[in-house]
Design brief:
Elements: H1 2-28, E1 52-58, H2 66-82, E2 86-92, H3 95-107, E3 114-118, H4 120-124, H5 134-139, H6 149-152, E4 156-157, E5 160-161, E6 167-169, E7 171-176, H7 177-183, E8 196-197, E9 203-204, H8 208-217, E10 220-221, E11 237-243, H9 251-255, H10 274-288, H11 297-300, E12 315-321, E13 336-339, E14 343-344, E15 347-348, E16 353-359, H12 366-377, H13 381-388, E17 391-392, H14 398-409, H15 417-423, H16 438-454, H17 460-478
Parallel strand pairs: 1-2, 1-3, 11-12
Antiparallel strand pairs: 3-16, 4-5, 6-16, 6-17, 7-12, 7-13, 8-9, 10-11, 14-15
Helix pairs in contact: 1-3, 2-13, 16-17
């Protein structure tokens, strides 16, 4: 009987790989990106008959880069050698092709057991496909005491706990100390509830109104005039005060800092909150208003900005996620730190990105898959953090992560505790939750973001109404 189960399992694994290979071949005839070694990694599969096989699908999020393949193989070998009951079998697919490959595997009845690492967007493409982990957490009395309770809600979808926190990317305000010093301005606050202190000693609530005032003073033209100066030349700006660094393309993304809101009402119609509408208006005015302080889309693409304004030293404040530490040029920005996200109407929101692993609801071996899963988040997690990066969700593992960043940016000193505090202010609902008719609905928001960044005379209120009409039609198509 055991041999029959094993043979059946081998057949399913081979079928999964065949589906993935077929997907890759189909996509290769299109304008697909060049495929790396991940595309054919699993052509030679050896399955041990005396173990339960658990397949691990990699590529929906991180894991398909060429530099990640060998470390992943080594990690799998370490796990397989650590026990004799389970054989973990990785299946790696290029990120650009992984969504279609996984969808076809599911439709063909040959899904994997574990998927990941994967973020909210990747999970959102497969609603209802992932196992609710809460019964397994309860059955095995799995300890969650070292995880911020607020963050567990981040992984609940319609009441189901579809993942446990692994690598998280809270957001905060990156700021260039040198720009503040040159303007004679105090640095922004590093604790929620602290006011901003103006040079004359007066205090202001740390909110988006204060950010706008501060950013205008930090926006300079080629003659050194700031945006509040009568002689300021808005056509010759060389330094901007603020940007939603790499998180501005979709209004869903940046509006979450004002007010988290899922843009679907209880009747399935498109809806935006008052906070989202104000965020969209604020964004457009920040670019095209009388005192502009946020770069237009075409400005960011110039050689001077290089599509990375803060790192180029051309933006004084950038509100973005912890993953942005990947891309700060210390030669251009030798002295920087982080502050808490500004509030809106008295509430602070620091939108969150987070990667996790998920178990497919169709797995034939949920307990064995959960055993692998807990190894990924526990004993084996250090190796995976080295491969994928990200702040460990588990508190005892976080110090070493920040020590590594300290070494990278030395002698600059950063108050990393700000990111820890921001975890408790994550956006619920999350700004990346899947929408009805996900892809085209997402594109509708992107189109609006592009128009906001490129159209000075855009009637924002009318354009918002048009967006809602577009979304209503798209939502209806997705039903």
């Amino acid at each position: 009987m055991r041999e029959q189960v094993s043979l059946a399992r081998q057949a399913r694994l081979i079928a999964l790989v065949v589906i993935i290979v077929a997907t890759l071949m189909a996509c290769s005839s299109e304008d697909a990106p060049p495929q790396n070694d991940a595309d054919s990694q699993d052509s030679d599969i050896v399955v041990l008959d005396d173990r339960i096989q658990i397949t691990w699908f990699i590529g929906l999020g991180a894991g398909s880069r060429e530099d990640q393949l060998a470390p992943q193989e080594e990690w799998v070998e370490i796990y397989n050698n650590s026990q004799d009951r389970i054989e973990l079998l990785p299946v790696v697919v290029d990120n650009e092709l992984a969504r279609d490959a996984l969808r076809e595997a599911i439709e063909a009845g040959n899904p994997p057991d574990i998927v990941g690492p994967v973020g909210t967007v990747g999970r959102g493409d497969f609603p209802g496909a992932f196992l609710d982990l809460q019964p397994l957490v309860d059955e095995f009395d799995y300890d969650l005491s070292d995880i911020d309770p607020a963050f567990l809600d981040f992984y609940r979808e319609e009441g189901a706990l579809v993942g446990l926190p692994f690598a998280i990317f809270p957001s905060a305000l990156f700021y260039n100390r040198d720009h503040f010093d040159a303007a004679g301005l105090n640095y922004p606050p590093q604790a929620v509830g602290e006011p901003y202190l103006w040079p004359d000693g007066t205090e202001a609530i740390w909110d988006f109104d204060t950010v706008a005032e501060l950013a205008a003073l930090l926006t300079l033209d080629e003659n050194g005039n700031n945006a509040t100066d009568p002689d300021f030349d808005a056509a010759m700006i060389v330094q901007y005060g603020f940007d939603f660094q790499w998180t501005r393309r979709s209004p869903r993304w940046f509006s979450a800092y004002f007010e988290p809101f899922y843009p679907v009402d209880e009747d399935g119609q498109a809806a935006l909150s008052d906070g989202q509408v104000e965020a969209i208006q604020w964004f457009h005015s920040a670019i095209w208003g009388e005192q502009p302080f946020l770069p237009a889309g075409d400005i960011l693409l110039t050689d001077e900005f290089g599509d990375n304004g803060f790192s180029a030293g051309r933006v004084a404040m950038g509100l973005t996620h912890l993953w942005y530490t990947c891309c700060i040029d210390s030669d251009n920005v030798p002295s920087w730190d982080v502050a808490v996200a500004p509030s809106y109407n008295g509430d602070t929101t620091a939108k969150m990105h987070g990667d996790t692993f998920a178990i497919m609801a169709t797995t034939e071996h949920p307990r064995e898959a959960f055993e692998v899963y807990t190894y990924m988040l526990g004993e084996g997690s250090s190796g995976l953090y080295e491969i994928y990066g990200g702040l460990p969700a588990r508190i005892p593992q976080q110090d070493s992560f920040f020590e590594t960043l300290d070494e990278r940016f030395a002698p600059n000193e950063v108050n990393w505790q700000v990111f820890i505090e921001m975890i408790s202010y994550l956006d619920v609902p999350n700004h990346e939750l899947a929408l009805p008719n996900t892809a085209p609905s997402h594109d509708a928001f992107i189109t609006l973001g592009t128009e906001l960044s490129s159209t000075p005379d855009l009637d924002v209120d009318d354009r918002i109404e048009l967006l809602l009409d577009e979304l209503d039609a798209l939502y209806a198509e997705g039903q």
